[in-house]
Amino acid sequence: LSNLIQGYTLCSRSDGKSPKTMALATLALTTLKNCLEARGLPTDVTEIGPTELREFILHLQQVRAFEHHPYTRVQNKGLSGCAINCYLRAIRAFWSWLIREEIISKNPFDKVRIPKPPGKVVPTFSENQLRALLKVISREKATGFRDWTMILTLLDTGLRASELVGLTVEDTNLEDGIVKVNGKGSKERIVPIGARVQRAIWKYLQFHRPEPLSPLCPTLFLTRDGEPVTVNRLEGIIESHGRKARIEGVRCSPHT
Fold first, then answer.
1. CATH architecture of residue range(s) 127-244
2. What is the CATH number of domain 2-111?
C-alpha cells in the first residue's frame, strides 16, 4: 500500500491535483494503512475488500478529532461527519485510480456506502458583528491595515481563504477593478472588486506592504517579515480580531 500511495501521488500531481488535495489523500491513505495494520488486517490492495473498508469506517467514527493530524493537537471530540466523508472520498478516488491503472479488477467501494455528512447550517456574521470586527482593527499600523484590507476583500468578493492568500500583485488590476483568482482545481477566474477595496489595496501597496523576503515573491498580502500570509495565519488573524470585538455566537473565521 505504501508504494502505491507514492505512485498515486506522482500521477495525481502530473494530472494537476492541488497540494491540498494530495495532502488529504496521503493522510487518509496512511490512516487506512495504520488502521489495518493495527487490526492485523491485510494491507495488500488486492486483498482489501468491503469488510476491511467497513472496519476502517468504524475506526474513523471512534477516533478523536485530529488524532492522525501531523500538526494539530488532538481534541476531546470525535471526527465530524464532514471529516469522515472527506477521508473516505479521498480513499475512494485512490481505488478508482487502481482500477484505471489495472492494478485491481474490482472496486470494493462498489459495495460500501460512504456515510453522508449531516447537513448543518453554519451561522454567519450579522452586519453589526462585521462592523465591530472591522472597527477594532488599528489601521494606523501596517499589519492592521493589511488585516483590514484582507477582511474587506473577503467580504467584497466572497473569495475562499486560500484564494485570498494566493492573490498576487501582478493579478490585481486596480484600474479595471478586477483580480485574477487561481481557484479550486487550478481554475482561473476574474473577480470584480468594489471601489472601496480598490482604494484599500492601493493604499496597502503604496504605504503598508513590506519588502518581500524573496525579491521574486509575487504574493499580495505579506507578513511583517515579508513572507506570504498563509491560510492558517489568516484564520488566526480573524479569530484574534473577533475576540477583541467580543463577537459571540458565530465562528470568527474566513470560512464563515
1. Orthogonal Bundle (1.10)
2. 1.10.150.130
Task: Give me 234's grid cell.
Answer: 489568516
Residue whose C-alpha cell is 495525481: 12
Helix, coil or strand: residue 200: helix
| Cα–Cα distance measured from residue 97 to residue 86, given in angstroms and rounded to the nearest whole number | 17
Mean pLDDT of all residues in the chain?
A: 90
- Residue 177, phi then psi, degrees to nearest 5: 70, 45
Residue entry with cell 525579491: 215
Placement of cell 471529516 in the chain: 83
Strand partners, 222: 228
Question: Which residues share a beta bridge with 215?
Answer: none
Cell numbers at residue 3, please?
A: 508504494
Phi and psi for 180 in degrees, rounded to 5? -95, 125
**pLDDT tens-digit series, residues 125-178:** 999 999 999 999 999 999 999 999 999 999 999 999 999 999 999 999 999 999
Taking alpha carbons only, the member of 232, 227, 229 closest to residue 212 is 227
Task: Please answer whether residues 195 and 177 qualify as being in contact, where contact means their C-beta atoms are separated by less than 8 angstroms.
Answer: yes
Q: Put the strands of the sheet holding 172-173 in their side by side order.
A: 172-173, 178-182, 188-192
Whose cell is 501596517? That residue is 142
Q: How far apart are CA 89 and CA 101, in angstroms?
A: 18
CA separation for the pair 231, 136 (Å, rounded): 21
- In degrees to the nearest 10, what's the CA dihedral of 52, 54, 55, 56? 90
All structural domains of the chain with their residue ranges: 2-111, 127-244
